[in-house]
Every structure is written in structure tokens, then in C-alpha cells.
């Protein structure tokens, strides 16, 4: 599992055709982990879209994670699931999916991070670092808190929330494994090039963290 450039999808900006095209272009550009997030779709609609996205991810060797819905993840044979603080607990997701699947979790405090790790989380998403334009309710997280979380747990920690190629330098020295982005790629007119620029930026940041 490589969390360097983690794309969380948002289909609200797209037709299904343009959505799938954006996903593929982002994967071409270097996305290393992809989370399909659909808050408004029914389970059946979610599964149908997940199957199509999984096929694309398979062509690029990139793991597909499902946001929240452990049932959908299991049904389509996804690589794993990502759960938030109000979703099913990490331990329950792990019990359902088994030891070989990826279970990621959202954390905003050191205490939440430690609890997720103890329950079996494979990685953490921490933020929001900046205000976001997604429909998901966000609470800003200080970079100092992000750094404390990175130091507290032995699993990869990714920053999320309003990040793009022009503002990620604030994360220097934080110890992150990578970044999660939504709008930066999903709203991009050239998602492949945007993904390339983001990945290059993260690699530079990580090299300066050493």
C-alpha cells in the first residue's frame, strides 16, 4: 500500500462518463490509492459504480477503497474500506473484511489516532488542513496536531483537506506519508497533469522530511 497520492472521488461534478474518464486520467498521472466516496447513492448504485471503478483501478494496479460502506466493499471485492469517526468502528470493519483487507480511518486528534491504530487501522487520514469545497462537514486541523499524530502512531498518516500543488508546503516536516485530495483532481481540467504535479510535490516534501 502506497499512500503518497490518495484520491478521494467526488462524482457530483461529473456525468458518469466524465467521472470515469477523470478517474482513469488521475491514475495515469500517478494516483497511488483511490477511495470511492458516494454519500448520495443507493447501495445498488454504489456497487455498480464501484465495479466500474475497480476495473479501471485494476488496470493500473491501484487499490480501490470504499468510503464507509463495508457491505459494498465486501460485495465488489474492493481492496478495503475507509471509515470516519461516525462510521462503523475500525475493529468492526476489520472483523467483517478480515486481516488481508485495508482498513483506513479518519482521525483529528492524537487520541483518535491511537484508538484507530489499536483497533487495527492500516493508515490514517488527518484534516482538514484547509477549508474544503466538498459537501462533507470539515473541522480544521492544525499542522502541529498532524505532526503529533504522525509521531504517535507507527502507520502511514496522510493529510487531507483543501490541499493542492500550491499550498502543500505547509506540511513540510510534519512526517506525513502522503496527501489525500478531492477537488484538486476531480475539478481539474487536466487531471493527469494535476496528479503528476501533486505527486512530484509530495515526493519533494517527503524527501525534505528525512
Automatic annotation (TrEMBL):
Residues 5-185 form the Thiamine phosphate synthase/TenI domain. 2-[(2R,5Z)-2-carboxy-4-methylthiazol-5(2H)-ylidene]ethyl phosphate binds at residues 132-134, 162, 182-183. Pathway: Cofactor biosynthesis; thiamine diphosphate biosynthesis; thiamine phosphate from 4-amino-2-methyl-5-diphosphomethylpyrimidine and 4-methyl-5-(2-phosphoethyl)-thiazole: step 1/1. InterPro entries: Aldolase_TIM, ThiamineP_synth_sf, ThiamineP_synth_TenI, TMP_synthase. GO terms for molecular function: magnesium ion binding; thiamine-phosphate diphosphorylase activity. Its EC number is 2.5.1.3. Keywords: Magnesium, Metal-binding, Thiamine biosynthesis, Transferase. The keyword Metal-binding applies. It comes from the Bacteria. Binds 1 Mg(2+) ion per subunit. One of its GO terms (cellular component) is cytoplasm. Its cofactor is Mg(2+). The keyword tRNA processing does not apply. It catalyses: 4-methyl-5-(2-phosphooxyethyl)-thiazole + 4-amino-2-methyl-5-(diphosphooxymethyl)pyrimidine + H(+) = thiamine phosphate + diphosphate; 2-(2-carboxy-4-methylthiazol-5-yl)ethyl phosphate + 4-amino-2-methyl-5-(diphosphooxymethyl)pyrimidine + 2 H(+) = thiamine phosphate + CO2 + diphosphate; 2-[(2R,5Z)-2-carboxy-4-methylthiazol-5(2H)-ylidene]ethyl phosphate + 4-amino-2-methyl-5-(diphosphooxymethyl)pyrimidine + 2 H(+) = thiamine phosphate + CO2 + diphosphate. Belongs to the thiamine-phosphate synthase family. PANTHER family: THIAMINE-PHOSPHATE PYROPHOSPHORYLASE, THIAMINE-PHOSPHATE SYNTHASE. Condenses 4-methyl-5-(beta-hydroxyethyl)thiazole monophosphate (THZ-P) and 2-methyl-4-amino-5-hydroxymethyl pyrimidine pyrophosphate (HMP-PP) to form thiamine monophosphate (TMP). This is Thiamine-phosphate synthase. It comes from Candidatus Fusicatenibacter merdavium.
